């Protein structure tokens, strides 16, 4: 029994009071949804920024390594920092092969990118792809078509060593066997004249530039280095010199045989590549012929039978195998038999009968 208070009513019984329902109103629901969306959006943005940072870093690494292709205005590409690995560039630029390459690019577009690097002055310099660059440059000048105003390229960092640029430049053409021995020798000579390259000798540079080639090919290149360095001004068609002719001329130069002054004079008046090579061939005849090393004949043998006895003959050895017990033969008799055997070999033209 409850007692009334001074106000005349008793306390409420909690069990009899229904709990109040607190439903979220429209405004509260909107605020809650907005807060949840903001949280999710913030987390998504943070994740997106993290992913963007990783992608940007990966892109910078790939770009620095030359794994990203880009379109470069043809006028921004320069070729004066790194000498080309080809002789007679003007002739190559006007050759039938260049016209064929231009026709292919005109019909199918540029399929292989060129490789560029930033030179010391910040300009883009050509490292690989001189023929492609030349073909697109000619097409741009001849047609005025915007399609040939740019070139697809890989742009790599220009902080590598100069010798590495020479190696990269020739690597592609050497693998494709697109360079003559004279051109490969000229690269070594040009690199040796580059003040930025540490090595002083073109002969030493052959190993650096063409380390992947067989030692015999590197020997051929060194022969052409000697020929080109000795007869640089007189050789107007170095690419026309065959491998064997170049090696023979190098031998003659090393031997110091032949009249070098007369050779220079005759080369200066040669009017064709064939005439030039004929002069070189005449000069090479003065070179001493090196004897080829004699091949060691492998150990040979033959076998035959005399009755029940098998005989095996080879260099320094004659083996007799039979059922005879040679250990039971008296030593003196065996010695006489061997002596008769040796005498029979010595007197091949006058056989004698020996009684044992």
TrEMBL record:
InterPro entries: ParB/Sulfiredoxin_sf, ParB_N. Residues 74-146 form the ParB-like N-terminal domain. Pfam families: ParB_N. This is Chromosome partitioning protein, ParB family. It comes from Litoreibacter janthinus. Residues 1-27 are annotated as: Disordered.
């Amino acid at each position: 029994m409850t007692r009334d208070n001074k106000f005349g009513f008793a306390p409420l019984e909690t069990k009899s009071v229904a709990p109040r329902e607190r439903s979220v109103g429209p405004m509260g629901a909107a605020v809650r949804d907005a807060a949840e969306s903001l949280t999710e959006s913030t987390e998504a943005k943070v994740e997106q920024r993290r992913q963007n940072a990783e992608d940007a870093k990966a892109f910078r690494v790939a770009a620095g390594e030359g794994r990203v292709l880009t379109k470069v205005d043809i006028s921004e590409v320069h070729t004066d920092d790194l000498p080309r690995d080809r002789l007679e560039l003007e002739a190559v630029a006007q050759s039938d092969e260049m016209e064929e390459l231009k026709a292919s690019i005109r019909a199918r577009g540029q399929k292989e990118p060129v490789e560029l690097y930033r030179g010391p002055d910040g300009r883009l310099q050509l490292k690989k792809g001189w023929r492609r660059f030349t073909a697109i440059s000619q097409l741009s000048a001849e047609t005025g078509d915007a399609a040939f105003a740019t070139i697809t390229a890989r742009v790599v960092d220009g902080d590598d060593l100069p010798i590495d640029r020479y190696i990269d430049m020739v690597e592609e053409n050497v693998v494709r066997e697109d360079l003559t021995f004279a051109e490969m020798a000229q690269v070594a000579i040009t690199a040796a004249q580059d003040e930025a390259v540490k090595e002083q000798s073109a002969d030493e540079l052959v190993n650096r530039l063409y380390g992947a080639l067989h030692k015999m090919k590197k020997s051929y290149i060194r022969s052409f280095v000697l020929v080109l360095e000795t007869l640089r001004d007189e050789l107007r068609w170095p690419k026309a010199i065959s491998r064997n002719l170049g090696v023979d001329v190098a031998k003659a130069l090393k031997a110091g045989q032949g009249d070098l002054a007369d050779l220079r004079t005759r080369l200066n008046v040669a009017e064709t590549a064939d005439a030039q090579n004929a002069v070189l061939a005449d000069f090479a005849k003065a070179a001493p012929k090196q004897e080829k090393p004699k091949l060691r004949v492998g150990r040979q043998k033959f076998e035959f039978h005399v009755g029940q006895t098998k005989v095996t003959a080879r260099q320094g050895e004659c083996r007799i195998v039979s059922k005879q017990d040679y250990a039971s033969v008296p030593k003196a008799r065996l010695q006489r038999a061997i002596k008769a055997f040796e005498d029979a070999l010595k007197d091949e033209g006058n056989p004698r009968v020996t009684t044992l």
